[in-house]
Each structure stands twice: as C-alpha cells, then as structure tokens.
C-alpha cells in the first residue's frame, strides 16, 4: 500500500518518472532490444566472427550488422542449443535445456517431434514446452524474465516467432509470459511462407492453410510486403506507441527469417543472382539481407526518436544455419557454416555457435571483440541486470550467469566455467553430430558424448575450430574429468537420456562408460 | 517447413496432470465470468428488480437474465457511478471514484471531456485514466484485480469494451492490466457502430473512420453479424481455448451494448415493431435482447462443457440507462428508468442503480433476492475472495468491501455502512441530478450535495425510490451528520471539487456550508 502516492494532487509530472513504491526517481533505465534471428549461421553475414574472412563473408551483405558491431562488442563464442525450442526456452527461463527438458522442437500438444529410431527410445521430454502455470503435463513451469521486466515497469513487445509451447497449452501465447503486445507470435516455430501473395499461409477466405500460417498480419495480405518487412513495420509502430507510454521498453524482435521456406525477398534477390549465385542461394542471401535491413530500420528509429543513447541492442541467432538438406540450399551438405562443422541440429560448432553483438552506449566500448564464451541461458540474468532488476523470486533455478561483466570488461566469467548441452532426442534430419548426445565445454576443451554409441569426442576448440581433430584418445584424463562433470550436471538438473529399445535400459550417463 | 513433421510419433497422454513444482494439488478454484453491460438501466429487462412489474418489464424480453436470476441472487440496490469510466476504474482498482479521480469519461490523452460552464471550473481530474505504471500525468496508478488473478494462475480474457485509459497512455490496453486475451477492447468507451455492414467503423480500405471504431473484429466485416453476436462468438472461442489450458478462467464479458448508437439488431427488431414500438424504441429493445442472447449462449457453453457447476456468473451494468436525449429514444425524457429518476450521468437513482445478479452454484441459494446495498468498488475484493486470493499487496488503498457475505447470507455488510460518490465534473448532457455533485448513502438515507448551488437533497430511498420527496428541510440533523461524514471521506480520499470561475475559489465541501 502506498498512500503517499495518492496525495499527489496537482503535481505537474515531468514525464519518465519511475515512482514505484516510495521512491520518486526518474526512470532512466535503458530500453532493451533483443534482435533474434532464426536459424542464422555464424557465417551468414558480411561481418567476420572468425579470425579470417570467408567466402560467406564476401557473399552476404549485412551492412547494419557491421554498423552495430562498430558501435558495440562482437562475441565470437556465443552459444545456443542446436534447435529452436531448446534455445528459446533457455532464453525465457534462464535454465539449461537439461533442466527444462524442452530438448526438441514443439508444435502439437502431447506429440513428440522426434524421428523414429530402430534402436533408441527418446525419453518423455517436455514436448508441451514451457508455461507460466501448472496444469499441463510435460511442461516446464517458469517465470520468464519478460514477466519480471513487465512487473518492474517495462513495456514489453513481442514481434515475430515465439515457439515456447505447443498448440492449446498456456505456453503458446507470448501474452502468458509477460508480453503486453504480440505481433505474429504463436506456437509454431517457422512460417508457412514469407509471401504476402500467399497471405503468409492463409487462403482467400482467411482460413489458415497450415499450422505454420503466420497470424496477425492481415493488413499486409496481398500487398507485396515480404514478411520480414511487415514485421519490421509493425515493430516500428509498436515502438512509436512505447515511446508515448513513457516506460522503458523491451522489444523482442524475433524474426521468422531466415528459417525455411527460403522464399525470395525480391528487394534483394536480383543482386545476388548477379553475383552468380544459384536461385536457391540467392534467395537465401536475400532472406539474410532483408533481416539486416530490419535491423537497420530499427537502429534508424532509435536515432530519429532520440533513444539511441539509452537503448541496448543485442543481436543473436537461435541455432546454427541450416546445412543438412538439398531442398533449400545448393551448397555442399554440412559446409554452409564453414569453418564450423555441420549446422542446425548438430552438436558440432556449426549447430550451436551464433553470431552475437551487443551495443550498449556508454557501457560497451565500441568496436570491441570478446572471445570469451557464454551460452543462451545467460541472457536471462544479463537482461535483468541491464534493467537493474536484481531481486526476484522465480519458481525455476537459474543456470545462466550474467555476461554483463564481459560487456564491461571487468571480469572473464567464462574462464574455468563449464557450459553444458543435453539433447536426448532425435531431430528429423541426418548429418555429422546430429543425434542423441550431451556436450561439455570447459576452457579450450569440448567433449561430445553420443548416447547411442557411447563414443566420446574431444576437441581443442580455439585451436581446432573446425573440429577436424578428435583427440579423445590422447587425453583420457581430460575425458574422464569432463565426463564426470557432465554426468554430475545432468543428474543434478534432472536431465534425461534415451534408452535402448532392445533392453529397455537407459543409455549410460557419460561418466558411466 | 519442417520436414520432420512427417515423422511425428504420436503419444497418447492423459491430460490434467500437475507434474512440476512443489505442489500437486488439483486446481478446483471457480471460473468467474463478469458479464458487464454498458449503459443498461435498472428497468431494461423483463426481470423486475423493483417491487412491482413495470411497463418496461413487460416490454423487454430477457429470458436469460430471468434464468440466471432463478439460479442465483438478484441485488436490488447494486450501485455504480453514473458514467462509464468512473465505474470501470472503480471496478478495476477497488477504489472509490473520489480516490482514483477518473470522475468523467476518458478518450484523448490530456483532454478533458467536460462540458464548458460559465460559472464553474472543473478540477484537474485524471482524464488520462488509470494505469499500471507511473510515467503519465493525470493518471491513477493501481494494480488491477485481473492482474492478481493472472498472477495467481487464472487465465484472463477480456471481451468488449475496456475504457480505462486515454489513447496513447498505458491504460488504454487490457493487456496492461493483466488480461492475457483481448477481444476488441481499447481506449474508447463506445462503438462507432454495431453493424458489420459498416465494418464496425472501418472503411473499405481497412482504415478507422472514428476513434470509436471497434478493433479486432475484421473477420466479421461484411458478414451481417451484429457486433454483440461477433463478440459472443469470439468469447466462446476464447472459452474453448481456456478449457484446454486447464486453468481456472476469468472472462470479462464487457459488451459494448447497449451504448449508443442504437443500431437495429435485426434478429430481434421486427418482434418489437410488432409490439407497437417506434423504430427507435424497437431498436433499443433489440439491442437489449441481443445482449441477453449472448448471456444465454455463454450459459449454454458452461452447461455443454461441464463448467456450469464450477463457474460464478456475475451480471452487472456500468451506469444508468440513457435518458437525456431524443436522438436515440422516443420515450419522454428522464423517464426511461422509471421508477428511478433520470438516468446515465445523474446523481439520482436512475444514474447509479444497476441490475445485478450473481449465480454461484453451491454457495448462492437459487432464486434469492438481496435488498442490501453495495457499490461497484466492492467487486474488486469480492472477486478476489471468490478466487481464494486474500493475500495481496497493491499500490492503491482499497475502498471496496467484499459482498461475498451477502451472497452467503452470513452478514449484512451494508447495514450502517456509507456509500460515497463524487463527481466534480460536468457531463455533456443536461437533466435532473446531472452536474457537479457528491452523494452519500447510509442506511435508508441518501443525501446529494450540488457543488455549484450548495443545495442538499435528502431522500428516504426504500420508501421513496422515485426520489420525489426531498426531505432535507425536515431533517437538519441528518443533513448535518451526513454532510460531515461525506466531507470527511472526500478529504480523506483526496477527492476533488470544482471551483468558481469568478473568484477562483473552490466550491465548499458539503460540511463547509
């Protein structure tokens, strides 16, 4: 109760006051934009995250990512899960995928999305996703950082892909996680199409033609507006509104791009054809540049509206670039994230290492590069720290660690720290490193353990970014130590593992073999 | 598109499991539906709330209200403010209008809606409405009971009219007050039109033609669906969804009906023409019956879905029936709420006494009638008590008192209690009891004090429901006592009063004259 507030009879309130509780301090908290791209590989940009420029850096044109990097800090070892839902659920909960158990992608209620194996049974994972309330089986209950931002006075905007919970479960709606505005987000993890000519997946009568039809963009149907652009225009309108509210805002700009289907963004397609790319690869490049233009438009909005100095922009992708099929790409399989091995769905670097940039005027030194590692669940405490929220009580245990010290260059929080992945699932496509596995990264070492075969691979990542040299046989003590640590973490977090169909027995933990 | 969709393995899972966290108790909390009608008078129904049947009870047909009353308790002295925003802000905050200061209707930011007076200056009231956060001038900050329901695991649905905050202020959006679904609610307090032929106020290009254009009903444009029906269909879809979430739900079914414009609901219009009503009055009656059908459809949904026994239904209106203009009605002015005097906007009973019914299976004795009084801010603690939420910490001081004891017939909480109204504003229409005033009701007595003239009127309400006999001159001691109590309350709650333009001095409080 706060009666004192009620005695403010004739107070000419200069705007942007933060008067929660008993304090009457101006609200100078930063706006925060998380610009999350879908299925974007580490090399799908003209901005080199590797030590060398690659042919991909030459091919793609992402001038706004370059500009953002000039204004902020690039992270060369930013990790996520190799699949969308695990990453996005870690983002929202602050929990490692081993703990939240949403270890494959979600869509239909009570329906696993795993491919069928003759030998392995996947565990009873949380195929219904995350939710904010109890009441639904196979769901992980958590309070999102977005809810905490909202509860602390942030205006919260969701634009684009959500993909946190199955259809007809509470986790399907961004509104249930603290978002106050939702543009086009729902249960599905990809778009039926980016094309307004196809009404983003709705027929002429306005009926959805697919579970992946993108809702809420009716006004752009038939207008020739590529969906990336439609989302951007809607996001800018939401920012206009946010400015009027005199609240700090959180914009989750979560593009459906560059997830398949790889439709042509005709604004950019011809340019890449002229560069000599195939139809498929030119379309892919056009999807990337359309996304980059959106980033530029948002940065322009910040400048024009006087919010640039007080807005943190975080750029990130949710998993590696698509590298396992010939339907959408012409490049040789598994090479599209070079120098990283394989891509989306793989335990190798191509599946999990992401392009990440953070721009934070006055705090992050422009044009800097951080080679320390971090992982997607770190975003939860980091964003809350950016917003000045350090006192919160949530039902889940937070695994993430704030990377703000890396931004401020006050402390290397990755040194001596272990990162963990757990994927007891069978994703639908095949390729190197795809299949049930768990992984640990500690300092230079990365060990992958494959549940089915019991095989362990060990890589010295900084010196073998390409993961060409498995040195497991050379370092049995390292293997032993990492196996113990990984096994301990998985058990501590109630991680899951597959079992053998033949015997019904669970696959061994990494430290049991 | 995700190819692995083709390889889905189907897992039948029993639903309604609580599998996480520390508690595993079934959630048996009741669903709650607040069915709020706009501008509906006490007599706009076939259900007699007075001791006698009137011609209005004969004229209108509201079979579903009758059914609801058979199943629950009718309240014959349920009060609200005489204008929409004050009532709705009291509902959401639990505060008396004197405290929240949203004492006239809201629409544009920083814009008073008061009529101009040559003699009085209205105070600097909260014309920007209520909000959940600081940052906007002339706004009352509160945490709504809906937010508390949501925070406690209720799924919260808004359908229809909101009208809590001005355009471009945080209070404009139901999502900012804890609603997780919003159908057609925004800043405006009325509809441009109920007609789908006019796209509810949008032109053919989809552009809004009025600040009162009703958003979010695009799919009904041009379909011949009267808006009351469109809202009902959307509400039922939201209930279907709510059932899947396995959460208790709160549905705020807040009809735009029967606010002007009094469009014909052709499903019912002819029937009333055949009864001999004029075009205007037949249209008015059709608006009422369309609203009543919506109530019936929702009650049917409860039955069909097995939720009837566990759902509380509260029927209420937000202020008196429209009685001050000839543009929309043919009845003689000020008579339409007979036996109550005047209507919407007036301090007399016609402005503030509402038709109210509560159906609560197992708790409320069916077919009962409660003659004790209550007021709109009582809904806040009452609904929270119904939901079992008794421990909450909110920034505002709650003036309301739970009416659950009246429902349970365990205690008459109105005996000896005073109800208060404060309206230092000048509503746009003229009529008896309309103008800056404050009012107190205590036991049988009701005293109205008019700020401009200093006049006081006193009525013995149960014995003079029509307010024909002002007995102020006969009971100076009662006047004195009530004036003191009213003045004290207004000052304690930081109430506002108009001032005289000539002198710049405030009008006296009721106990200063």
From TrEMBL, chains A, B:
InterPro entries: Alkaline_phosphatase_core_sf, Sulfatase, Sulfatase_CS, Sulfatase_N. The conversion to 3-oxoalanine (also known as C-formylglycine, FGly), of a serine or cysteine residue in prokaryotes and of a cysteine residue in eukaryotes, is critical for catalytic activity. It comes from the Bacteria. Pfam families: Sulfatase (PF00884). Gene3D superfamilies: 3.30.1120.10, Alkaline Phosphatase, subunit A. GO terms for molecular function: arylsulfatase activity; metal ion binding. The keyword Repressor does not apply. SUPFAM superfamilies: Alkaline phosphatase-like. Residues 30-389 form the Sulfatase N-terminal domain. The modification 3-oxoalanine (Ser) is found at residue 84. Its cofactor is Ca(2+). Keywords: Calcium, Hydrolase, Metal-binding, Signal. Belongs to the sulfatase family. This is Sulfatase N-terminal domain-containing protein. It comes from Barnesiella intestinihominis YIT 11860.
């Amino acid at each position: 109760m706060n009666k004192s507030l009620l005695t403010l009879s004739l107070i000419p309130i200069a705007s942007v006051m933060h008067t929660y509780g008993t304090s009457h301090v101006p609200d100078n908290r930063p706006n925060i934009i998380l610009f999350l791209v879908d299925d974007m590989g580490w090399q799908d940009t003209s901005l080199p995250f590797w030590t060398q420029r690659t042919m991909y850096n030459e091919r793609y044109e992402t001038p706004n990512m370059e500009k953002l990097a000039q204004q902020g800090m690039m992270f060369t070892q930013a990790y996520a899960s190799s699949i969308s839902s695990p990453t996005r659920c870690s983002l929202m909960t602050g929990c490692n995928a081993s703990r939240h158990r949403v270890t494959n992608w979600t869509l239909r209620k009570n329906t696993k999305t795993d491919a069928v194996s003759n030998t392995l049974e996947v565990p009873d994972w949380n195929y219904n996703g995350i939710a904010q309330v109890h009441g639904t089986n196979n769901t992980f209950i958590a309070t999102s950082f977005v809810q905490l931002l909202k509860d602390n006075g942030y205006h919260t905007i969701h634009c684009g892909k959500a993909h946190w919970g199955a259809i007809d479960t509470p986790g399907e709606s961004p509104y249930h996680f603290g978002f106050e505005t939702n543009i086009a987000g729902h249960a599905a993890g990809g778009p039926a199409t980016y094309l307004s000519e196809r009404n983003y997946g709705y027929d002429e009568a306005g009926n959805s033609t697919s579970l992946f039809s993108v809702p809420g963009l009716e006004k752009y149907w038939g207008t020739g507006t590529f969906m990336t652009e439609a989302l951007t225009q809607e996001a800018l309108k939401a920012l206009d509104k946010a400015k009027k509210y005199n609240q700090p805002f959180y914009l989750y700009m979560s593009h459906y791009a560059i997830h398949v289907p790889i439709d042509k963004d005709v604004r950019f397609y011809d340019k890449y054809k002229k560069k000599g790319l195939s139809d498929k690869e030119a379309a892919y490049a056009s999807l990337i540049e359309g996304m980059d233009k959106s980033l530029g438009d948002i940065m322009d909005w910040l400048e024009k509206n006087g919010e640039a100095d007080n807005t943190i922009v975080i750029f990130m992708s949710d998993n590696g670039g698509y590298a396992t099929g010939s339907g959408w790409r012409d490049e040789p399989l598994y090479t599209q994230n070079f120098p990283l091995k394989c891509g989306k769905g793989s335990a190798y670097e191509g599946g999990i290492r992401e392009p990440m940039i953070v721009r934070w005027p006055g705090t992050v030194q422009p044009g800097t590069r951080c080679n320390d590692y971090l992982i997607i669940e770190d975003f939860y405490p980091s964003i809350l720290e950016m917003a000045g929220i350090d006192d919160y009580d949530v039902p889940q245990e937070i695994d993430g660690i704030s990377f703000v010290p890396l931004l401020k260059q006050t402390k290397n929080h990755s040194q001596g720290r272990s990162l963990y992945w757990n994927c007891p699932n069978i994703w639908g496509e095949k390729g190197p490193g795809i299949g049930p596995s768990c992984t640990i990264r500690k300092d230079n070492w990365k060990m992958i353990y494959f549940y089915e075969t019991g095989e362990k691979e060990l890589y010295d990542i900084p010196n073998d970014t390409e993961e060409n040299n498995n040195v497991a046989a050379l370092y049995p003590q390292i293997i032993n130590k990492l196996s113990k640590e990984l096994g301990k973490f998985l058990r501590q977090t109630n991680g899951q593992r597959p079992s053998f169909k033949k015997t019904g027995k669970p696959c061994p933990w990494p430290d049991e073999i």
